Amino acid sequence: MLRTSFKALALAIGLFAAAPAHAAGEAIAIPxxxxxxDGVFGTYDRASxxxxxxxxxxxxxACHSLRLLSYRNLRELGLTEAQVEAIAAGxxxxxxxxxxxxxxxxxGRPADRFRKPFANDAAARAAxxxxxxxxxxxxxxxxxxxxxYLYALLIGYVDPPAGVTVMxxxxxxxxxxxxxxxxxxxxxxxxxxxxxxxKATVEQMxxxxxxxxxxxxxxxxxxxxxxxxxxxxxxxILAGLTYAVKRKVWADVEH
Amino acid sequence: MSIGLHxxxxxxxxxxxxxxxxxxxxxxQKEYGTFPTPKNFNYFWNFGAxxxxxxxxxxxxxxxxxxxxxxxxxxxxxxxxxxxxDVNFGWLIRYIHMNGASMFFIVVYIHIFRGMYYGSYKAPxxxxxxxxxxxxxxxxxxxxMGYVLPWxxxxxxxxxxxxxxxxxxxVVGNFIVELLWGGFSVDNPxxxxxxxLHYLLPFVIFGVVFxxxxxxxxxxxxxxxxxxxKGPQDTLPFHPYYTAKDSVGLVVYFIVFAVLVFFAPNxxxxxxxxxxxxxxxTPPHIVPEWYFLPYYAILRAVPDKLxxxxxxxxxxxxxxxxxxxDRSPVRSMxxxxxxxxxxxxxxxxxxxxxxxxxxxxxxxxxxIARIATAYYFAYFLVILPLxxxxxxxxxxxxxxxxxxxxxGPLPAGAAAKPMEKA
Lengths: 255, 422
Prior knowledge:
The complex is a heterodimer.
Chain A: H1 2-17, H2 46-58, H3 81-89, E1 92-95, E2 104-107, H4 121-127, H5 139-142, H6 147-155, E3 171-172, E4 180-181, H7 202-217, H8 221-250
Antiparallel strand pairs in A: 1-2, 3-4
Chain B: H1 13-21, H2 24-33, E1 36-38, H3 47-66, H4 76-85, H5 90-117, H6 126-148, H7 153-165, H8 173-181, H9 188-219, E2 235-237, H10 238-263, H11 293-301, H12 305-317, H13 322-325, H14 339-356, H15 364-390, H16 401-405
Antiparallel strand pairs in B: 1-2
């Protein structure tokens, strides 16, 4: 009893301490998943992100676009130029109009944006039972909880509790706001074949693709943190110097 | 004043040549060099300079952002993400600008708090204070329109909710709303005019800041004791004393700013604003940026739309008449035993409103918001006017130098004062 009230108190303090804007909405508690990019100095686990790209490419990309990314961006994940060119060349990109005024298809190049699975939103809805699969480019920034939420959602497909009727065409997910999601469970064990021999469990694929999507949303994260460390060290030294100057300037003043 | 060259004191021939013809160097020397400044400032007096620096940072980063931003509903969201990904250090410039808005409000709120606590709004500084309120209103308008520009869900729905408030006014309400929208809903014309005004208003702010500083340099600064300097022994030249002290505050401020920009750039934002604007999907909770939450709480505390809008605007407009609501001749709360706790409670109420503004308007949150709103206005409209009559302030120190120097010769004709310690 006492412990519960302590928990409630801690939660209340936590909510109060959180940024006010975050406090809106009665959120479902999202479990905290340990990622390589957590914390102040975290970086992207390249191997995991590359596997995550494979999951995106072979599973998610069937419905979800990643329109803000170009194939060349994959170089940042440690892929070689040749690998990126090969990946891009695997897609047929609509280009044009050519000299005859015709649109045409050509093999993709690294500078191309990721090819969208559907020509437009209406086509996407038509193919998905009326639901629109959202673009995933900034998804990790667009949901409270970020990558933790993405991971939770991907492993959150369970049988609905007794007494809950799931609407036609919907699926029960314990971490989705409202619990009923149009997307069916996307990941099944051994759905992809990892080249590095990692066992493709649902949890492993969810973790990898969450890492990949976090990178897709915040490709600048590592550079930002590295620069931030330098700048804060510089400013701390400067603060000391400035304070010393101030002390010296004020030394002859009684105040 | 006779026509002819200005009598410049500068020795450098180039500086002297310019100064004789256009005495900007003399002016700078007078206003920022030798300008007599009370010697007893605490670090609260840094925040005016911090606000000035933040304004310049916002203008500088904003100019670079606008070089890559596209003010069109179909392009705005992606152009912002393009800045984040493909523009060299675009992520840095954008995160500085985005978090700079929050830092600007933090700094200005502390600056306003300092002005209220130490009675900086009282005669002869009423106009100085009112210009400050004008700056704050312009800042709010600028920040609001800036938040619309990325054209995310909160941009769109925040703009819809806030512009719709004006429809509460009788007769002219709908006209104002359509003028803001440039049509019959928040759409591309709205985005275009907001971008234009968002670029314009910072320069208007800069102009009013100039007037704010010009007025300050007529009356001189207030200080933590709230008594006027009695002579040169109470003041110091602005440079090097306060340039040095402001530099300390500035660097510490930059550290806080940097922590936010480099390690938690989206902490004060709302994740929904990374979803492109969609007029067909309303977010479950529409919340403004954190710095507007106190007024949002006041708006929602009132069951009537027009009443809520009036109280919301009134909550800031009442600051304009603060110099006349507070009739106490004593400025600093240090010497006001009753006003001090009432004012600190007002500050708590402001923070409570900030907190409750982010909560859904239901249940006990509504009650909390109403109590805090009532006290917010009661402090200005009832408590302060009454205290001006009823309160017995503590005895004021003889001068700025005396309490710190603890002795020394009194000015001629001055008798021993009750403040003097045994």
